[in-house]
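>> received
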Amino acid sequence: MKFRSYALAAAAALVVLPVSAKAQTRLIIGSWAAPTHEVNTTLFPHWAQEVEKATGGRVKFEIKYNLAPPPGFFDAVRDGVADASWVFHGYNPGKFVATQVMEMPGLGASAAAGSAAYWRVHEKHLAKANEHEGVKVMALMTHGAGVIHSQRPIKSWADLKGLKVRLPGGIASKVGEAFGAVAVTVPAPKVYETLSSRVAEAVFMPWEVQKSFRVAEVTKHILEVPGNLYDGSFAIVMNPAKFNALSPADQKAVMSVSGEKLSHFAGGVWAQADVAGREAAKAAGNSVSTASPDMLAALKKVSADIEAEWVKRATGKGYDPKAALEELRSTARTLDKK
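>> returned
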């Protein structure tokens, strides 16, 4: 599939260029994941490289850590603590409704295709809700399909009832709670600690966390759900004042390597991270199972109720939520075939 392969090949071939002495503007990217996470080792260095090339060395990025807790990076960028960062929408309950279109079960497409489709749907529909007021959206992305990592096997949805599960927020939490999971809410960097101390016995997260957050060490089982159990919703955002302080030519140059192009690349990076996560799970001897037809049928019913409830909450925000969801899925699946 050419579309998906392009993103993966681009990420794999990443070469970081040496710093030029001609820099006029140095911007800080704040990040909340570990320095070894793919977002920090591949995605942000790639964006920094592309921005530097596009601006002739006039604009550069530098990554810094621990500028805010993970849920605080929207405000950190808005307030100028960081010039740019990535935001997980599920960390801010109640603030984001439109972006939950990306989190619904059943996308049925890769992270690269889903991320590119997400950008298109945001530009056409979701931006009208103005949920990112105070920051400038530079790209949107989703991680790979969410799976269930657990310390004991999940053979049916009944096995979730009463189970303490780290749920990520947003739609994924609604799915888990619909099947009786007891929600444990912690940011991703706290997942290892939460599982090792048995505060939670399972997590809803993508494959990549088996390696990136060492979940392979504290779980034994992974349940995959064909068609995607859920997807995560992220934005790469920038402080508007810092962006507007760039020359018009540099603003145009930065956007030429952001938007859909960066969204697509970001999805490919998440796909690479999932491959590494699978390898970590295999090395740890963790078992992998697939949701049964009965589980899929039950998930379809729960998803229909969640979608209907979301459409009600999203109505009246300046766009058609049902059309946005349909377009996201159709666009992602079409792009996934290219």
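>> The radius of gyration is 19 Å.
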